[in-house]
Amino acid sequence: MMPPRTLASAAAREPDPSRRNNLSLLTSLVHHHGVLSRAQLTRHTGLNRSTVGTLIGQLVTLGLVYETAPAGEGQVGRPSPNVHPSPSVAALAVNPEVDAVTIGLVSLGGKVQKKIRFDTERIPSAREAVNIASAVIAGMRSELDTSYRITGIGMAVPGLVNRDDGVVRHAPHLGWRNEPVARMLSEATGYPCQAANDASLGAEAELIFGAGAGQGNLIYLNGGASGIGGGIISDGQLLRGASGYAGEIGHTFVRSGGKSCHCGATGCLETEVSQSRLLELAGLSRGDTADLEKALATSSSAEVNDEVARQLMFLDIALRNAVNIFNPEAIVLDGFLGTLYALAPESVDGVLLSQAMDGPAGQVKIYRAALGSDLMMIGAAELAFTPFLADPAGLGTTTRTAPAAG
Amino acid sequence: MMPPRTLASAAAREPDPSRRNNLSLLTSLVHHHGVLSRAQLTRHTGLNRSTVGTLIGQLVTLGLVYETAPAGEGQVGRPSPNVHPSPSVAALAVNPEVDAVTIGLVSLGGKVQKKIRFDTERIPSAREAVNIASAVIAGMRSELDTSYRITGIGMAVPGLVNRDDGVVRHAPHLGWRNEPVARMLSEATGYPCQAANDASLGAEAELIFGAGAGQGNLIYLNGGASGIGGGIISDGQLLRGASGYAGEIGHTFVRSGGKSCHCGATGCLETEVSQSRLLELAGLSRGDTADLEKALATSSSAEVNDEVARQLMFLDIALRNAVNIFNPEAIVLDGFLGTLYALAPESVDGVLLSQAMDGPAGQVKIYRAALGSDLMMIGAAELAFTPFLADPAGLGTTTRTAPAAG
DNA sequence: GCAGAATTGTTCTAGACCCAAACATATTAT
DNA sequence: ATAATATGTTTGGGTCTAGAACAATTCTGC
User: Helix (H, G, I), strand (E, B), or coil: what is residue B373?
Assistant: First the structure.
């Protein structure tokens, strides 16, 4: 009879929860900070330095981090080596939009190694978006297999996404309904895949690497061609809600008797504050946020100014609500909402201070987004990094399954 | 030379984080469920049954739980003894209101052992409220010292409370501003004291013991004589925000050009939906929620019905916003908001389903609050139980300091 | 330059803790 | 009554972390 556990299989034994937890802590710190000395890691974790030594040794052996010679300057005492995230550990990111599908490769530490934008003639269907993504990934396959260890694929979708099963419940601007995109892409590529709302992932990216770095409570609002999306971080955690739908600040009520919205209600922020109306008034029949920013900075039309003031007023109402409800440290405005804010920052700050409640309003700061076009890639990749970071030593176990034929 | 750690002092050594975490897990489970068999605890925690045996043994020795003979019915196999929270472990609860200060004694498991309502002639000042509370507690002192182990005092205040330092930033209906009530009561009684917003604590109480039991995401809204308070639970955690001010759903914007509110804005839920206006229209010059419920159930006045419909409309808007932003599983309505809801539940449910977004609206359920008048006591006590539950074995270390003279 | 202080890596040991296995116990099913 | 099932109890082993002692490396003061 075979003994229940041979020596060979013992190598794959999973570690104690305590060890897993500590490895997770260290890996996450390195991922979020980019570089940290071993001494800094010791202080951040509160672990003994002998323990940190052992753990880092294991992470180096696993190829998840590497150490470099200490800079050796300024400090008294023996210099501490720097610990870096391994660039060969990476996640794939996919972001379907109305006019393109962008695929990215993001390595540990949040560095975007590759970004490929595939412009589409028309709005892509879910099947088309999956096909485009899997084709691009197939093209990178040999490089991925030789030079990277891929933790999985994260997909950032502009719409309501059930985070548990990766089904897009409704993406109005893409015209998708009940599309199981995570499963589709997973079957097409063989990589584990997860999907979430794009603005939620943007919030996470800005929290970890961007304007809100270090804050525990922030609200991220993104205004784009297809409306306003939002993500909320509370106590360092993204608000998910029962099914991962949380964060739809774009559908905050801001006006009695306002226009009716595709969501079924009236007077939503998204219908009253829109980029397309601003573009129109600025005389830009077609254009994106960058064009708008230029046009508004130079425009002196009263009509444009009135519309800007009107939209700012509604934005103020939504922000006031959000501040009262969440008491955040920071609000990060991205896309054309950042543009709007930049036109009258003192006014927005002032209205917020006077209209929101005493306590919460006093400490909130408004920022423009910092990560630019890499944001969605970083956020989507984070979706694939999260399970890896929870159990870094278990990476080898989630092997890629064979992709479906066809 | 003395050795660095004598045998005598070794007895007070603190356990490993792992042990502390497991003890915390078990104690919390017993506290929240009231009674659980050891077998159930084994399943819930995922720990080995030998480990659970050791841990329960330690908790019994510490006097935090006790075991009773198994019921012995139905199940195959050896019966598993029941584990109960010790009623001698308790927290004090204090709830100042405009017309009274209520002091309670709540034992582990959320059982209210005592509740003393001290009616005041006029609105109590912070100092008066503290004096009343400390006097009542002084009266119970001998009983507390002999029969209970007190984890601390929790204070539920109707207003903005900074949870970190226990300072009431602003309680408009009490007329308090920047009152360090937690420190005041702690100095007066010698017990550690924490303070928080009353509705936030109500939300936690309803989550753990009441209508939302078992849910991870719920919104609690309470309507009383002094306005509308709210608390939000996300992923099993109360939303605190940067300073513990989060949850002010009462100041959601629901009406353009609405009345101005004491908070500085206009069109707040709290100004448009108010108990006092309903009482007035119902012909009750003075009265509370119970009176209102009776009056509305029998009233056939068109004026009253119109006002009810109007208030329900605004409540709908606030609920729609909240559902879009939080994607909760449950909304719990307390006070006169529960009364309002009971007048037309299908209508509210229907409006919510059509006005809120597809995904989040589909799964939310609205409940009336379940805990009644014990709610505030249980919620406030939870504030004092939380640090205890995080480290149950450390209870003995937080000894009461000598109360200030006077 | 050189001695001393300061800080951190490294090695070794011991203690805490959890799990698994074997055994014991109590109840239901046949 | 006997078997099956579920659970408490005891014991031994392996993992993991902290702590102490020592080594390494840099800065400071003279």
Answer: helix
Crossing angle of helices A345-355 and A336-343, rounded to 10°: 90
Cβ atoms of residues B287 and B236 within 8 Å = no
Q: What is the CA radius of gyration of chain B?
A: 23
**Across the interface, do B217 and A242 touch by the CB < 8 Å criterion?**
yes
Kindly state whether residues A54 and A145 are assigned to the same domain: no
Q: Which two tokens stand for residue B243?
A: 């300073």
Single-letter amino acid, residue A286:
R
A8 within domain boundaries: no
Question: Which of A134, A132, A135, A107 has the alpha carbon at shortest distance from A122?
Answer: A132
Question: Closest-CA residue in chain A for B159?
Answer: A359
- The reply to whether A107 and A197 lie within a common domain is yes
Q: For CA atoms A38, A43, A44, A45, give the dihedral sign.
A: positive
**What sections of B69-161 are H helices per DSSP?**
126-147
User: Do A90 and A384 contact (CB within 8 A), yes or no?
Assistant: no
Residue B89 and residue A308: Cα distance in Å, rounded?
60
pLDDT tens digit at each of 406 positions of chain A = 333 333 333 344 567 889 999 999 999 999 999 999 999 999 999 999 999 999 999 999 999 999 998 876 678 889 999 999 999 999 999 999 999 999 999 999 999 999 999 999 999 999 999 999 999 999 999 999 999 999 999 999 999 999 999 999 999 999 999 999 999 999 999 999 999 999 999 999 999 998 877 788 999 999 988 889 999 999 999 999 998 899 999 999 999 988 899 888 999 999 999 998 998 888 887 777 888 888 888 877 888 889 999 999 999 999 999 999 999 999 999 999 999 999 999 989 998 888 888 777 778 999 999 888 899 999 999 999 999 999 998 865 444 555 555 4
Grouping H, G, I as helix, E, B as strand and the rest as coil, residue B321 is: helix
* Residue to test with chain B: of A162, A234, A266, A331, most B Cβ within 10 A: A234
Residue contact A239–B240, C-beta within 8 A: no
B241/A360 Cβ within 8 A? yes
* Residue A361 CA neighbour count, 13 Å, CB half: 21
Please tell me the distance in Å from A366's CA to the nearest CA on chain B: 14
Tokens of B250: 């009462």
Contact check, Cβ <8 Å, B245/A321: no
Nucleotide D9: closest residue by CA–C1': B50
Give yes or no: residues A365 and A248 share one domain.
yes
Q: Is residue B8 part of a domain?
A: no
- End-to-end CA, chain A: 44
Torsion-angle region of A273 (φ positive above 0: left; ψ -120 to 50: alpha; else: beta):
beta
Residues B244 and B362 in one domain: yes
CATH number where A113 lies: 3.30.420.40
Q: Using CB atoms within 10 A of its CB, is residue B199 exposed (0-12), middle (13-18) or buried (19+)?
A: buried
Instruction: Provide the CA A393 to C1' D10 distance, Å, integer.
Output: 34
For chain B, what is the domain count? 3
Residue A102 to residue A118: CA distance in whole angstroms = 6
Complete edge-to-edge strand list for the sheet that includes strand B227-234:
B237-238, B227-234, B218-224, B330-335, B365-368
The nucleotide minimizing the C1' distance to residue A70's CA is: D25
- Same-domain status, A114 and A153: yes
Q: Do B327 and A244 touch (CB under 8 A)?
A: yes
Nucleotide with smallest C1' distance to residue A52 CA:
D17
Q: In 10 A of CB A4, how many CB atoms? A: 6
Instruction: Name which of B230, B243, B228 is nearest B204 in CA terms.
Output: B230
Query: Residue A53: which nucleotide is closest by CA–C1'?
Result: C9
